[in-house]
Amino acid sequence: MLEGIKILCFTHFIQGPIAAQLLADFGAEVIKVEAPTGPYERGWSGMDAFHNGMSDCFLIANRNQRSLSLDMRSEEGREILHRLIAQSDAIIENFRPGVLDKYGFGYDQLKEKYPALVYASLSGFGTTGPYKARPGQDMIAQGLSGLASISGRSTSPPVTIGTSVVDIHSAALAAFGVAAALLDSKRNGKGHKIDCCLLNAAMHLQSELFGCYLSQGYLFDKLPTGAATRAFEAPYGVYETSDGFIILSKTPIPKCRILFGADDFEGFKDDEIYTRRAEIDRIVSREMKKKTTVEWEKIFGENDCWFSRINEYDDVVKDPQVIHNGMIVEMDHPVAGKVKILGNPLIVDGETLAIRIYPPLQGQHTPEILKECGYTPQEIDDLLARNIAICKA
Fold first, then answer.
1. Distance between CA atoms of 360 and 364, rounded to whole angstroms?
2. What is the rounded average pLDDT of the residues 358-383?
3. Do domains 6-205+323-390 and 224-310 have the same CATH topology?
4. What does the alpha-carbon distance between residue 55 and residue 169 come to, in Å, rounded to a whole number?
5. What distances in angstroms separate CA 133 from CA 30, 98, 125, 128, 243, one per listed residue?
6. Alpha-carbon distance 112 to 100, whole Å?
7. Which candidate in 76, 158, 189, 391 could, as Cys together with 363 as Cys, close a disulfide (CB 3.0–4.6 Å)?
8. Domain assignments of the chain as residue spans, ordered by start
């Protein structure tokens, strides 16, 4: 779908590379510009997971991209980049605000020379404002945005989400913004600057709950039992069974009478789901402990309830719907070997999106990209010999 679109990326870790990868999955030609030392995610991975020396973190976030490695501190390195920018439709970067400006590649430095260029800056808190120089990270954004304050029980401390949900959401928002800006650029020849930060993405994840707060001026207090929300009616959350835990979502009073006994809900009016949420939550929590998880799954299924068991990852990979959706893909990487990763979550025309280019070695495509920029074989050899350009393939 995005064939013919060329994107130059100065990205590292998760937020930036995932944004670029989403666009690359849809066919855009993405060139990842790497410093001579490589980006952070080449040398780090959660759980210290490496495959034949290749970081798992790099492998999950850099498919369908080519690698150009060069030293942009040099005049010749910057000249290479200007040749590439002249051929490109968009730039994506997620360095701290001002870093690329030092080398002459900030948006204000490029927009007059390349008026149709789309330029996306991904950051922690924004490219302007009092926090622009602060280091941004997923969990920090969860705290600053209030996301860490809304979950958990009243007896528990604040709870952060145990995966980089803000990074991924910010990446998706950035990719959407770039795609929209590219459409307008192609129509009207006018470039755009897209700013996407973790703080805004974390707040956007809370659109529903924050809307309730802005309307009412408060949120419900956390409850000590199962409820996992500060805005919805009970029951809603994780409830303990006699042998584990299960999630039960919005269940009206008439159905609660069927599930948990009419006596317990005698005197409850059907419209008291908010005003008596603490009582409802307490009753449900008490009754849930009287049966096993399997028993409750059968009861809830027979009564068309909104519920789910809580899967560990060992369960998720065997889940029939997960398998049917094709979210887990295996690639036979030429260096890392057979590696399983999560694929693109979208299905297009009934098909999952293919891996066209394996996550590259550092500078793997440097010679061919330089050739496309008009450099001769002799000039390419000279740039490689002097470490202006790098190819570790």
1. 6
2. 98
3. no
4. 22
5. 28, 9, 9, 9, 49
6. 16
7. 391
8. 6-205+323-390, 224-310
Query: Which pLDDT score is estimated for 381?
Result: 98
The highest-level CATH class for domain 224-310 is: alpha beta
**Strand duo 192-197 + 118-123: pairing:** parallel
Q: In the CATH hierarchy, which fold is given to the domain comprising 6-205+323-390?
A: Rossmann fold (3.40.50)
Could you tell me if 80 and 376 are in contact, meaning their C-beta atoms sit under 8 angstroms apart?
no
Phi, psi dihedral angles at 347 (to 5 degrees): -115, 125
Q: How far apart are CA 339 and CA 50, in angstroms?
A: 10
Quick one: pLDDT at residue 69? 98
Beta bridge partners of 126: none
Average model confidence (pLDDT) across the chain: 96
User: What pLDDT score does 228 carry?
Assistant: 76
Average pLDDT over residues 336-361: 96
Identify the DSSP state of 227.
B
Write down how long the chain is. Answer: 393
User: Which residue, 178, 180, 181, 143, is CA-closest to 161?
Assistant: 143
Count other Cβ atoms within 10 Å, centred on residue 56: 19
* 168 closest CA partner among 205, 211, 135, 140: 205
Confidence at residue 225, expressed as pLDDT on a 0 to 100 scale: 86
